[in-house]
User: Fold YeeE/YedE family protein from Roseovarius gahaiensis.
Amino acid sequence: MRIIITYLIGLIFGLGIMISGMANPAKVINFFDVAGSWDPSLIFVMGGALVVTFIGYRLIFGKGPAKPVMDDSFHVPQNRVIDARLLGGSAIFGVGWGIAGFCPGGALPAVGSLKPEVLIFTAALIAGIFIAKALQTRAMRHAPS
Assistant:
């Protein structure tokens, strides 16, 4: 049952990304082109996501259930520190998003299109995950105890 629900949630997310046009890199790049052919529709997609998330968090963590239906506990990040790693990663993510026109959430539903730019981006995304993990492991090994 858990796999079916996970699949349905992913399907709904992917459909939302496709319907909103966020799987189209030109639409995303036009959002960042403030001096040219600016397309503000991404603001509405982000705003809608923010409203839904805000309401969801208030419902769940206000007087909601003590634990999720499909897991033993909620998985919320405990680290609240804004450090160089967080800022650097955010900057790299934003620059990559602006250059490629894809974020991981928009690219993964578009993989089914088999367009070369989507496949190249997704391969680079996966390679980047492995490289970052290797660098993190290496830094931990060489860090003073």
